[in-house]
Amino acid sequence: MESIIDQSCPICFADTGLKLFVHISEIPYFGEHTQMTMLCDDCGWKNTDFIPAEGKKPGAWSIKITNEEHMSIRVIRSSSCTIKIEEIGLEVEPGSNSSGYITNVEGVLNRFKDIVEMLLRQAKRDNDDSIEDCINLLEKIEEIRIGRREVEMVLLDPMGHSQILHENAIARELDENEIAELPIGPSIPVFDIENN
């Protein structure tokens, strides 16, 4: 379903209205959920999130990554999810423009790799001291990808929409202190639809 919503863009403030795309589907092992995407035609801003049909509790998911076969483990990350790989100091928190996505472990590693490569380019341009740190981090990410380094990937989601789809994944509820410390991510406006 596609519709135009009477809301200005949160980035460029264009008042032509945002497009809202809603798609309901069944994800194997995850159940029915709604994919919502808002898009601004003026500046190209886009925000996607996944919302399960069932109410979820704030939760954490973790999986030990021990070999190359684990690269294909399915990961569902909502826009409110923090991802951590503490053994090598990687963490991504949801920001104001965070989007949800469905990928696998290798896809998550590639997203981290892209960010570190961007930081490396910037460090080289600025002749910064962090060049070696970036190179070392890229080497560690590659070691994980080819199964030479064991780590634990953790998803922390105060909205409970994220999940790791594997028989060895461990799920637990977040406690109140953890929830209070986690960023929530973007605030997607809720719209009242009036039937005239």
Keywords for this entry:
3 helices; 5-stranded antiparallel β-sheet; 196 residues; 2 domains; 4-stranded antiparallel β-sheet; N-terminal domain of TfIIb; alpha+beta; disordered C terminus; Jelly Rolls
Q: Could you explain how this protein is built, in words?
A:
The chain is an alpha+beta fold and 196 residues long. The chain has two domains: 54 residues, N-terminal domain of TfIIb; 135 residues, ZPR1, A/B domain (Jelly Rolls). Helices cover 22% and strands 34% of the residues. It is built from three helices and twelve strands, in the order E-E-E-E-E-E-E-E-E-H-H-E-E-E-H. The strands form three sheets. It has a five-stranded antiparallel β-sheet, with no helix packed on it. The chain has a four-stranded antiparallel β-sheet with strand order 1-2-3-4, with no helix packed on it. A three-stranded antiparallel β-sheet has the order 9-6-11. Strand 2 and strand 3 form a beta hairpin. Helix 1 packs antiparallel against helix 2. The longest helix has 22 residues. The chain is globular and about 50 Å long. The C terminus is likely disordered.
